[in-house]
Amino acid sequence: MNVNIVAQGQTVFWRDITFGGNQFTDALQKAYSLNFEQAEALKKGEPIAGQTAQSIQPVLTGVSEDVAAELQKTIDFFQATSGSDRVDSIMLSGGSSKVTHLDEVLKEKFTLPVEPLNPFRSIFTDDRAVDAAWLSEHSPSLAVAVGLGVRRIGE
Q1: Is 123 within a domain?
Q2: 18 lies in which domain range?
Q3: 3-class SS at 82?
Q4: Among 1, 7, 132, 143, which is most buried by a count of CB atoms within 10 Å?
Q5: Taking the CB of residue 10, how many other CB atoms lie within 10 A of it?
Q6: If you ran DSSP here, which 8-state letter would residue 142 be given?
Q7: Per-residue DSSP letters for 33-54?
Q8: Helix H or strand E encompassing 11
Q9: Which CATH number does the domain housing residue 55 bear?
Q10: pLDDT mean over 109-129
């Protein structure tokens, strides 16, 4: 998981955490004796081996709480080393940003607005060339690609 703290449009702190989407998959594999592909499909909402999105929610919530704890450590470190004590919101990106109730767990833990990142919010897209529904659904997973695409030489 990559954490970036942004102030006035500039990254002021970043940290890579060895925790992320695979923890959801691993937890589902262990809880339901699934292989990797089955657990990934289940994580994405496909019913697998008699399990449904509703039945696996306790496992996903447990991992989401672990994500929140890791994020809390990072925010605490940022606040202790930067002199800033303010984080205004949390933006989620990447494939695991769509894990059911992750946003709700983070909202409850941090009492902050939590929303998916839309890297296209300031980019014009032609609805005739790109399906708007597809783009809306997948935009949090495209943040790195969009960021690299808008960079200039030397940045």
Answers
A1: no
A2: 2-85
A3: helix
A4: 143
A5: 6
A6: G
A7: T--HHHHHHHHTT--BTTB-TT
A8: strand 10-16
A9: 3.30.420.40
A10: 87
